[in-house]
Amino acid sequence: MSTPFILPGLYGALQGIKGILREISYKRNGMSQHVMFNQLKKGDFVWYVNGDKLHYRFVKNVSYDFSGTDVTNIVIEFYGDYYDLKIKPEDAKTYRYTWYYTLMGDAKAQADYVSLKRNESIKKSQKVTPEEIIKEADLVMKRIEKIKKDLK
Fold first, then answer.
1. pLDDT the model gives residue 28
2. Average pLDDT score, the chain
């Protein structure tokens, strides 16, 4: 009875194990990667900083657009992503391009910096001085008095 379900279950378990091993490999190998965008190849990593969140992209393919014999763009394709990164060759000689990074430490530092600044901004927006409290309390009292007058 359970024979038809064994193969899909086994396949699912193997895919899960493969995914876990891939995650471990990505993170371990990504820490030691030291290449610029113009040096990327299949299997390398690119980190994307979105606000204070750090996401990695796994390079699926690197190709080149040509105009005659001159390279016009370096095209970096990522696994599981709809967006390809097109970089001019002169702009690819860096570790950072817009919000993409080839060095995990640099990307993490940027995400941590944004997180710190956001937390500071939150704390600043939550501070209230005694003068502000008194001012708002007076406004509330005036509104209440106006409502009492209107009800009489």
1. 76
2. 89
